[in-house]
Amino acid sequence: MMKEEIDTSDLKQGMYVELGDGWLDHPFLRRSFMVKSLSDLEKIQSYLDRVTINLSKSKVKPKAKVETLEVAGDELAKEALIEPVVVITEPNEDAWDEKNTPSAELEAAINSDLPTEAKARQIFQHSSDLMNSVLSQAPTKELINETSHTIQSLAEFVVQDDEVAGKLLSITSHDFYTYTHSVNVGIKSLLIARKILNTSDTALLKELGVGFFLHDIGKSEIDPGILNKPGRLDESEMHIMRTHPQRGVDLLRAADSLTNTAQVITLQHHEKADGSGYPNKLKGDQVHEFAQMCALGDIYDALTSERSYKKGMSIFDALLLMKKQMSHHFDDEIFKRFILLFAEEARKET
Predict the structure, then answer these.
(1) At 186, is the secondary structure helix, strand, or coil?
(2) One-letter-per-residue 3-state SS of 297-335
(3) Nearest-CA neighbor of 137 among 103, 92, 186?
(4) SS3 letters across 274-285
(5) Average pLDDT, whole number, for the chain?
(6) Which of 66, 285, 81, 276 is nearest to 181 (CA)?
(7) For the chain, which residues score pLDDT lower than 70?
(8) pTM of the entire predicted model
(9) Do residue 100 and residue 62 come from a single domain?
(10) Is 191 among the domain residues?
């Protein structure tokens, strides 16, 4: 039986679709059927980005074979390792006139009568401004400590409201800069941790938030020419790049007040359960579960973020690719709960 996966933008009336029964539910009672009407076609296109076609039952065939995720998976998985662009901007000194000012402004927004989505976007924008300010300056001991206090307050806001948390999970940025990547990973990893750990321990979640948001701070000491190099890094450049977890830990340790939780996340977020990661090629349960949560948020953001040369992947396609190509990098239970987190939010949206 010949089948082909295509973008729903290429779907035509007369094609026989097989929707399957995977992680994400869909609004159709039947799992497979011929697309006969324009309304069915539009409904599929409004809900799904890709769909499987049964060629033997279709009256209309795709004009050209479309490369499937399974064929393209290796390349897409490699793209997830491409580093975000570093943007150097003038630091906003006013933002740090009073250490707690950013948190006070955010608290006012959270406690207002704004709709849930507006509150979520306030958190996201505030986080982006915060990380842009941090990463555009030399990461001194004082700056790291000030930032950690603000992140702890921010983490408390992120996890205190289930509806706001759900909206935050679906917000994606339209660029792939270091500071927006740090925000995306920080927020998503924090929500992943809350789900997987099934905890409302605010103190722990605040500690995790610091580690998740600052996981890439070591890149501030890497040559921007390497970070922003178009194309793949050569062996010597990759060796330098792979020092950023240790550089990050050194910066956090120099700040004194940060916990081992933030340090282990920063050091291990590129380690993999199969031993193929870096910097120490840890295996299995040697890789801390907190670091694995950060790695999941890191890869998911890399796949779903838009780049100058490609659109971000849909939730479904990103999860499918991660399951097929990367599940062996993580503890089975952690990975399953990660999938369920996004599946549940997708169902709520529909």
Answers:
(1) helix
(2) HHHHHHHHCCECCECCCCHHHHHHHHHHHHHHHCCHHHH
(3) 92
(4) ECCCCCCCCEHH
(5) 77
(6) 81
(7) 1, 20-29, 63-107, 109-110, 172-178, 230-231, 257-258, 307-310, 345-350
(8) 0.68
(9) no
(10) yes
